Amino acid sequence: GTRIIYDRSFLLKCRSSPMAN
Amino acid sequence: KDVEPGPGEHALQYTYCFWFSRKPTGRNQQSTSFEKNMKIIGTFRSVEQFWQIYSHMIRANELTGHSDVHVFKGGIKPLWEDKANRLGGKWIVRLRKGLVARCWENLILAMLGEQFMVGDEVCGAVVSIRFQEDIISIWNRSANENQVTSRIRDTLCRVLNLPPNTIMEYKTHNESLKDRSSF
Predict the structure, then answer these.
(1) Alpha-carbon gap, residue B175 to B114, rounded angstroms
(2) Which of A2, A6, A13 to probe the B interface (max B CBs under 10 A)?
(3) CA distance B114 to B120
(4) Is residue B46 within 8 Å of B12, Cβ to Cβ?
(5) Under an 8 A CB cutoff, do A7 and B11 touch?
(6) CB B39 within 8 A of CB B78
(7) What number of C-beta contacts closer than 8 Å exist between A and B?
(8) B111 neighbors B138 (Cβ within 8 angstroms)
(9) Which residues of B touch A3 (CB under 8 A)?
């Protein structure tokens, strides 16, 4: 099935502005 | 405990739990089993829930004594004897003091983001704070699947951006059970 893949920079972006993504 | 991603949050492929354990000192040493000594800190299912827990935790380089933080998939205990781990093993990376916080964060981000590309093989990751050095490890289900363990090693090297002389070794949990030692 489909896997949910995130790279490091996306995960870090979610930390600084959780609702902005 | 079952958790769901909140509205507008970014779901992860799996649910994970943070666990913490510290080696008991002095007279408590014998009476406390390793399992009893482990505590769940939090469970998360989304990127945002992860940061919420992680941001409140002490950074790996600030942990003292003989302590371990584990991030394991929901339903898998960070124990050799767990059904998911029984036939598995782990890659061990020994780090000189000073590197652990950055390496640990990069390791868990790679795991949560499904960067290892080995299906359901990854069980969890551990950071172990010791006196002389720090150790990070990543556990997988099948110690005898060479293709899987090689892929995990290659991804580890890429995401950790390790100094060239870093020692990496693979140890099966069966070996750990026999010599009663993690590393």
Answers:
(1) 27
(2) A6
(3) 10
(4) yes
(5) no
(6) no
(7) 39
(8) yes
(9) 13, 114
B105-116 as b/e: b if 16+ CB within 10 A: bbbbbbbbbbbb
Question: What are the backbone angles phi and psi of residue B41, rounded to the nearest 5°?
Answer: -95, -35
CA B82-B86-B87 angle, to 5 degrees, is 150
Residue B183 tokens read as 């590393």
Of the candidates B13, B48, B114, the beta carbon closest to that of A14 is on B48
**Would you state the structure tokens that stand for residue B105, as one six-digit string?**
């964060």
DSSP assignment of B54-66:
HHTSPPGGG--SS
Closest of B123, B132, B128 to residue B183, by C-alpha: B128
Q: Which two tokens stand for residue B65?
A: 């004594």
> What is the token pair recorded at B168?
């990496």
Mean pLDDT per 10-residue section of chain B, whose length is 183 residues? 91 97 73 77 97 95 93 97 97 94 97 98 97 96 98 95 86 94 88
